[in-house]
């Protein structure tokens, strides 16, 4: 009986992975980026007091999430649905370069988190620029 339950569980797990929706996965990942950045953006905007521990935590979380940005998994051929720009697949090398730059810049910021507002503004300006430059080209406007 145990073997049957384990076998059925394995089939369900494999089936779930096989039918995962790359669009939903990439949207969820992007939302996690926004959540991490949103937790410290008010500091950079002067709307909240600077908190080095919070900056360090947010950048570490962002770095963890950004490392999950696997273009091959999240943007497989044929997943240009639900409002995703086909330009991604037309310019895949450029898209991958945008992702690599984001990953490098976030990794750099996480390795040396800002210790004051000016440094935080510089880090978020660079990361936000990465996001914006990619969205400008590859995100469909609603």
Rg, nearest Å: 18 Å
Q: Order of SSEs, N→C?
A: HHHHHHHH
* Shape assignment: elongated
Summing up helix and strand content along with how strands pair, one would put the structural category as mainly alpha
**Text of the CATH class:** Mainly Alpha
Average pLDDT works out at 88
List the uncertain runs: 7-17
**What percent of residues are in strands?**
under 5%
Number of domains: 1
- The name of the CATH topology is Four Helix Bundle (Hemerythrin (Met), subunit A)
| C-alpha end-to-end distance | 51 Å
Q: CATH homologous superfamily - what is it?
A: Cytochrome c/b562
Question: What is the makeup of the main sheet?
Answer: none
Query: What is the strand tally?
Result: 0
Number of helices: 8
In the CATH hierarchy, the architecture is Up-down Bundle
Structure explained in plain terms:
The chain has one domain (22-138): Cytochrome c/b562 (Four Helix Bundle (Hemerythrin (Met), subunit A)). The protein has helices at residues 2-18, 22-38, 41-44, 52-66, 71-74, 87-90, 92-111, 117-138. α7 packs antiparallel against α8. With 142 residues, it is mostly helical.
């Amino acid at each position: 009986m145990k073997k049957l339950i384990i076998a059925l569980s394995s089939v369900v797990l494999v089936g779930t992975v096989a039918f995962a929706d790359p669009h939903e996965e990439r949207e969820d990942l992007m939302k996690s980026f926004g959540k991490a950045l949103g937790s410290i953006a008010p500091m950079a905007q002067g709307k909240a007091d600077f908190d080095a521990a919070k900056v360090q935590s947010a950048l570490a979380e962002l770095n963890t999430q950004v490392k999950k940005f696997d273009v091959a998994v999240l943007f497989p051929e044929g997943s240009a649905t639900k409002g995703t720009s086909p330009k991604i697949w037309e310019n895949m090398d450029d898209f991958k370069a945008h992702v690599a730059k984001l990953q490098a810049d976030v990794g750099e910021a996480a390795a040396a988190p800002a210790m004051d507002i000016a440094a935080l503004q510089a880090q978020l300006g660079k990361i936000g620029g990465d996001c914006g430059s990619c969205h400008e080209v590859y995100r469909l406007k609603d």
